[in-house]
Amino acid sequence: MIKTILWDIDGTILDFHSSAENSLKNTFKKFGYGEITDELLHMYEGINDVYWRKLEKGEITKEKLLVERFVEFFRKIGIENARAKEFNQAYLNGLLDTIVFMPEAYETVKKLHLKYKQYIVTNGVKQLQHKKISKAKIEEFFDDIFISDEIGYEKPQIEFFNHVFDRIEPQNRDEVIIIGDSLTSDIAGGIRAGIHTCWYHPSNEENHSDIKPECTVTSHLAFQELLKQL
């Protein structure tokens, strides 16, 4: 029986894609780089994903990731002398301008906190994540918040999850489930930690990776139903 839920936030509770797209468009204009097209957005997302995978593998620090993703992006699109560090900070600040929930996410975490212990587990930037969670007004639904910047390890590293379990109430790990949209951080980390795993995957595209979640849901309502079966 599940008693504890570990929640990823970006892409699982909050619609990070919408916030990121809005911030990129506004920051491009602010820095005088013109309009950012859908093609350029897609290019940036690909570069950004590569750098976050490097972080998960311990191949780069988050500080370098945040700047170097834009250095590479600007180089590829031919913007010379781009102020990547300043651009990144403006982009991060802009992420707070648009707080959008994934469908049924707010209602789900609000409802489930009455029955389950709930914790946020995120690889996000600590200053940004705390502000984002506060602005979304969801703190009251969670018993604690674990951010990789504050722990010193990233999901899916086992040290991240060991830190979490050292600080939450004594748990039988068979009574814990993690839900997240990332196979490489949330699901891989949950598997390493020996807990139940649920891949939140609204697009319902086929999983071609070697990482196999125990469960997959395409909506938060489906996750609520799943919990009744575990």
From TrEMBL:
SUPFAM superfamilies linked to this entry: HAD-like
UniProt key word Hydrolase: yes
Keyword tRNA processing: no
Keyword terms of this UniProt record: Hydrolase
Annotated organism of origin: Solobacterium moorei F0204
Name of the protein: HAD hydrolase, TIGR02254 family
PANTHER family: PTHR47478, PYRIMIDINE 5'-NUCLEOTIDASE YJJG
One Gene Ontology molecular-function label: 5'-nucleotidase activity
